[in-house]
Design brief:
4-stranded mixed sheet, Glutathione S-transferase Yfyf (Class Pi), Chain A, domain 2, 46% helix, homodimer, 8 helices, 4 strands
């Protein structure tokens, strides 16, 4: 998608861009360069579920409109509107909703909680990779305090070290099965080189990335921040 | 508990302190001033479940021993060992495991995911309150970059503003029922004044705090960092 296409889709409805007008379908509120949103697109692809997309131009403040805050009080993407109108936010919560009752989420208490443990790890430790990647790809790195960049780099390395150790003894992060915890971790971890982290030095992580890529219904799709001409600005 | 008692409990077993020796009971790996650990103690109290405690002296590096890293690869407390030996980490994941099948966690896909949405919000936005409180109570605030402290303060205020708006229209964060999402949020939010945030200005949050406190089995328990003579150090 070119910046021009991005703009035209965005402007097709004030602040939002509808790719489909089927009203009885789920709606994913999306921002294409967001890997948090990619997690959801990946699972939807695995499950073969139809959905429509509304693009939220977050750097122009479209996440802070009263309409969108009614969908997600924090103003962040992704968010999901069900066909019945109920709304859900936070990528890992959306994964849980969509994967419930499928092969991608265990249904027993311990299995469910173990998946959640690694999604919490993702939210805490892998966030460092996400921040660094965002700042690196949008020219914001030099505008950030050096101490903060250093903290994030140390945090990103720690995340990769822990994952490499864990993935040395099992194919997927919770054991033998590919779950939404893998999808959640995969989103930013497999792009760690874009945060200038030495991803290739972590051989078990790299082997796991290849295993994720070989899953049926894998979605090989990335949108660079360059598709959004506003992404060099700060989030409101 | 006095600093002396804390030390004596900690030293009763090398690195760990056993409060009970019943081997068929759950073990909570705990650090008393941690409000993440308090979340778990609060739910255990609501449920009336017996458990033993092992204290992890995190500022002395007890979270980084090979023994504890086998329990939680990230080295953080709380963590839980089940009676059958399986281990679980991350406070919100432990809450999910313990609350599964009880009144504190809905069993349908949407209800479960909504609880997880607010626990993700907690982990993301309320983290700012947790950091500020830790730095304020242990004398570390002046050692942190000013830009980072400012970011955390803005983040903490945003968290309180969002919660106040949400809690203006319903008694608990997910609706009519008190869930583990409330317990998770409560842990750091109700101590926001210790992070020098103006908690009393958020009237809906304050009314919600009173509702949480009135729940059957509420655990009114706090341990200041002062119980740990090592808490002014940096985490390894």
């Amino acid at each position: 998608m070119s910046p021009l296409e991005f703009e035209s889709k965005k402007q097709s409805v004030a602040g939002f861009a509808a790719w489909s007008n089927v009203p009885t379908m789920m709606t994913l509120y999306d921002y294409l360069p967001s890997q948090n949103a990619y997690k959801v697109r990946l699972l939807l692809n695995h499950l073969g579920l139809p959905y429509r997309t509304e693009l939220i131009s977050i750097f122009e403040g479209a996440g802070q409109t009263p309409e969108f805050l009614a969908v997600n009080p924090s103003g962040a993407v992704p968010a999901l509107r069900l066909a019945d109108g109920r709304v859900l936010a936070e990528s890992n919560a959306i994964l849980t909703y969509l994967a419930y009752g499928t092969r991608y989420l265990p249904s027993d208490a311990f299995g469910l909680a173990k998946v959640q443990q690694w999604m919490s790890f993702e939210q805490d430790y892998v966030l460092a990779i996400a921040s660094l990647r965002h700042w690196t790809m949008t020219g914001k790195l030099a505008r950030r305090p050096a101490a903060l960049v250093q903290m994030r780099r140390a945090g990103g390395m720690k995340a990769l070290e822990i994952l490499d150790r864990e993935l040395s003894s099992r194919p997927f992060i919770c054991g033998q099965d590919y779950t939404i915890a893998d999808m959640s971790l995969f989103a930013y971890v497999h792009r760690a080189d874009e945060a200038d982290l030495p991803l290739q030095e972590f051989s078990h992580v790299c082997a796991w990335i290849a295993r994720v890529r070989s899953q049926p219904g894998f979605l090989d799709q990335q949108f660079p921040y360059a598709v959004d001409p506003h992404s060099s600005g700060e989030l409101p």
